[in-house]
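Hi everyone, sorry if this is the wrong subforum. Our group has a chain we'd like a structural model of before ordering constructs, and none of us has done structure prediction before. Sequence below.
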Amino acid sequence: MALVDKKSVDELLLSRSLILVSGKGGVGKTAISSALACRAKELGRPVLLFCCDAPSELKPFANGKVLNAEVREILPRLWGVNQQTEEAVYAYLVDALKSKKLVDVMFRNKVARAFLQVAPSVGDLAMMGRIFQLAQSFTKKHQGLLIVDMPATGHALAMLKSPEAIANILVAGPVYDRAREIVDYFKNQNKTTFLPVTWPEELPITEVIELIDGVLQTGVGVGPVLLNGVVSNPIPSLPENAWSQMRELGALAEHQKWVDYLRVWSHRVNRERSRLLVALKEKLPEENALLDFPFLSRVPPTSSLGAELANALAG
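Answer:
Right subforum, don't worry. Here is the predicted structure as tokens:
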């Protein structure tokens, strides 16, 4: 099972209306989402980076604007928004019920508002509804792409399942109709693709395999797994005994620990990548396998991690 050609990711960025990104917390999904958005922009496609409940003052690009609750251009032809759940619930209900006055009454009612805040399925459905709404409007207005930096694995799966769960409970009405629309849009594999992100360590790899199983069960199409933090062996052709002898040379003492670290990390990358590829062979088509993103130890102060990873994707 070969690694994915980077051109196939470019094709996704140019052909889809909606790309969903998730993985275990800490694997770099926000940086990867930003890199995909930056790459889509470089390919000439208008793109909107949608972050779910991200920390305030999030600034994905050094020369761009901070993400806030307003959909706005943070770089030329690159828009961004930091969507909070409560605001998504309000926007979703206005859109579904077609009455801002009715929703205002609901939000002023303490009991109704408390229910909306504590019921997780309501927030998840509202966030999915907001994603659906923006994907449609952004595509219509700009012929562009919406890239969603979703929550970590478990919450992301709950979000993906929420429209179908609501549609199965209700039998009719505006909320049911909108839930069915969302389900159909997300299951349309010509429009929507889910990209799992992971890191070459045992727990993130195990979790991303389980995540892929869960996403496939929802009917959402899954694209290549994005393996972040990849390092190559700096001395791949050097036998172990030769390196042991070289380590004793005083001239190499300063660099020895870093070479050792990179060699150990590269072995771990190879081991976990192999384990992941075995699992993917049974789950995804051969062309939808795995794409490596390099481990970046330094980012220039005038750049950002997302922009530098986009350069790696382009190169």
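For your construct planning: The longest helix spans residues 253-281. The beta strands are 18-23, 47-52, 72-75, 78-83, 145-149, 192-198, 225-230, 290-294.
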